[in-house]
Specification:
Layout (H helix, E strand, L loop, with lengths): L1 H20 L12 H5 L3 H29 L2 H5 L1 H17 L15
Helix pairs in contact: 1-3, 3-5
Amino acid sequence: MTCFYLIYGLFFIGIGFAVKAVPDLIAGYNTMTKEQKEQVDIKGLSTHLRNSLVGMGLLIIICYYTFTWLGLHEATEILIPSVVFGGFIYIFVKGRKYNLKKRSPKVKDK
């Protein structure tokens, strides 16, 4: 089972570096028009995704070995779903700031 968590963590780390090197791997970005792509800070977004995915991979590996060392084998069963779910929520919430699309100004009611 040790190998599974190590491979899973390394997979996230690898995907993180791949997304930074080839931003077209980001879901939806490769299908955008040129005008839509200009509205995205791709350098910032790809860096955010890389950092988040590498962090998730390292967290999976470190937590697995820490929980095993502490004898908390039951905790390892919820490790991956917790890290992945929490990590993707973080990615989506913080990733919204890289959309440079200008929103229409709010009209104030009198």
